[in-house]
Amino acid sequence: MNQLLTFIRKEFLHVLRDRKTLLILFGLPIVQILLFGFALTNEVRNANIAIIDDAHDEASRSIIGMIAASRSFHAHALPGGHSSIDETFRSSGVKLIVLFPANFNTDLMHTQRARVQIIADASDPNTASTLTTYVSAIIADYQKARVQTTSLPYTISTNVRMLYNPQLKGAPNFVPGVMALVLMLVCVMMTSIAIVREKELGTMEILLVSPFKPMLVIVAKVVPYLLLSLVNVASILVLSVYVLDLPVQGSVVLLVAVSTVFIITSLALGLLISTITNSQQTAMLFSMMGMLLPTTLFSGFMFPIENMPLPLQIISNVVPARWYYIIVKSVMIKGLGFTAIWRELLVLVGMTGLLIVISLRKFKVRLA
Amino acid sequence: MKSTSNPTSNAVVLNGIGKTYENGAVVAVHDVSFDVRPGELFGLIGPDGAGKTSLFRILTTLLLPDAGTATVAGYDVVKDFRAIRGIVGYMPGKFSLYQDLSVEENVNFFATLFGTSVDENYDLIRDIYVQLEPFKHRRAGKLSGGMKQKLALCCALIHKPHVLFLDEPTTGVDPVSRKEFWEMLQRLKEQGIAILISTPYMDEAMMCERIALIQGGSIMSIDTPENIMQAFPATLYAVRATDAYHLRMDLLAEAFTESCHAFGDEVHLTLHTEGIAKAAGMEDVVAAMRARGHADVEIREIAPSIEDCFIRLMGQHHA
């Protein structure tokens, strides 16, 4: 026991004395959360849009007023008129132009049919469709308001409620994703490197030629990263609650417990990588390519899994991050309890067990 | 039957050990047998790639031999590897301590790892550790080559091993530190620890009680250094002239030359004694070399060194 504690203490010293490792370990989650929270967001805020108003009547002015009032847009009139549309898209940062034809209000009153043209820069299809949806919604709102003053015989009114995330913020989606990503990256990469480093430096030779059990070498390697990763989980949660205003809806204890399971899964993966590689570089490459890519692609955090072709959906099942992502979303965002997530948790526990068994069997008690 | 440790048996016994790599394509060690007696300082002398490190790894249970058997302190290296791992000290050829830990932390770590403490066996490492003491807070990676080896020796000794395996501990170490290192080993020997040491430096062979000359994975000779040198079968001459390089080429061209090798600025020469009408003498060599235009030719009879023996055995081995 004393041996194990000394070994664990030694591992902590390695981590704490290596500035680069420390930076990755604690910088990565913070940078990721802040990046996804403030920079890499697909929420539309202050998008530059231009308005050409040939109507200058009551209806067009009301709609323009509503658009200008929206936080999503930064609207301004386009003085050049129609001829400058192409030029505007090319040279300025305008994403969308709303065009009201002459006699807009008159057409609406008399023919019951008026047209508004929305021209969007679709070089970024997501932004373009989001922006057109927003503008269409504003116009629909205006129409509804007018209809109430007159009267129409039949109307279907849609009543939309955005559950769990009424403001359609990006954070509820990406915080669980970032948690999966960071834990995967930190645990897999750090453990595999920590073990392979002993091989590369030759210290593994001495460790093996000692009464210390190889099994305990693994435990000693894994414990510090388990603890440091829990610190990471805590810092991500604190950031998301206090900086991104995303409270944990469900049980924090459950969330931490589930995260611990996922950390152990990742550590086991790192261990497996360390048993099949012999240099720190290969271990790093393996972790980056083998873990980072599948985690971002197949966890469902960047790209919805339901939209993938069937073979890819099947592949996504073996990515641990996919299950963790579902669990974190359920607990953190939807506030669900253990009964809602036990299936996913079972998958995760099963994977962990399998990985530990494989890597322990692959761990060599000799050099070759 | 389970083998047990027997203090009166030899510290290390190798019996026809063989090891190949890459599915038999590369032969690292072939049919090696020797033993190290209790408390003996035994040297494995041979150039790089002779198979020394493979032998060390087999004996320290890090590699499995393909052929033969070996025991360390009476334990079989394959079956009883766990028992061996607790009672041997091993210093690999490459510096293998934690560079980012201080001298003190390294020593304490290895002491704890072996289930002991620095205080418990301090008398064993005291001679070495006092030299390290002024640097005990320095990180191991920042030590000089000689200091690193002393630290590694400390760490290998800290648990009072029955057998100490030192794989090229003096390679890349300055001459003064090398000398100090060997002096420490002499003192350790007095404590009754059997030591198996390997080195590519032939001059260090003299410091061992017995040596095995190894080349190409095979043992060429095992004996005390003195006996090996006495067994040198010919009279050895050192020849010197102003142009050492051409001197060797010209000697090789002479009929009386049996072997000649460059040693520093001299050429070590042996002469044919059989199958020749009259054996050449020193004056014949000098005359022949003068005739070939060499100036200041000097020749004298010398006692063969281990290196001379090694080179001669190597030639026989290849033939």
Summarize the structure.
With 368 residues, chain A is mainly alpha-helical.
Protein model, in words:
The complex is a heterodimer of chains A (368) and B (319). By secondary structure, chain A is mostly helical. Chain A has a four-stranded mixed beta sheet with strand order 2-1-3-4, covered by helices on one side. The two termini of chain A are 29 Å apart. Chain B folds into two domains: 214 residues, Rossmann fold; 71 residues, Alpha-Beta Plaits (2-Layer Sandwich), CATH 3.30.70. Chain B has a six-stranded mixed beta sheet, with helices on both faces. Chain B has a four-stranded antiparallel beta sheet with strand order 2-1-4-5, with helices on one face. In chain B, strands 12-13-11-14 form a four-stranded antiparallel beta sheet, with helices on one face. Chains A and B meet through helix 1 and helix 8 of A and helix 2 and helix 3 of B.
Give me the Rg of chain A, rounded.
28 Å
Percentage beta strand of chain A: 5-15%
Distance between the termini of chain A: 29 Å
CATH architecture call of the largest domain in chain B:
3-Layer(aba) Sandwich
Strand order of the largest sheet of chain A: 2-1-3-4
Strand-pairing-aware structural class of chain B: alpha/beta
> What would you call the shape of chain B?
elongated
Could you report the average pLDDT of chain B, rounded to the nearest whole number? 90
Largest interface: A-B, 24 and 31 residues
Report the sheet with the most strands of chain A, covering strand number, pairing sense and barrel closure. 4 strands, mixed
Give the helices and strands of chain B as they follow along the chain: EEEHEEHEHHHEHEEEHEHEEHEH
Sequence of strands across the biggest β-sheet of chain B: 6-7-8-3-9-10
By DSSP (H or I, 4+ residues per run), the number of helices of chain A equals 14
Number of structural units classed as domains of chain B: 2
Number of strands of chain B: 14
Distance between the termini of chain B: 43 Å
Largest sheet of chain B: 6 strands, mixed
Q: Uncertain runs of chain B with pLDDT below 50, 5 residues or more?
A: 1-7
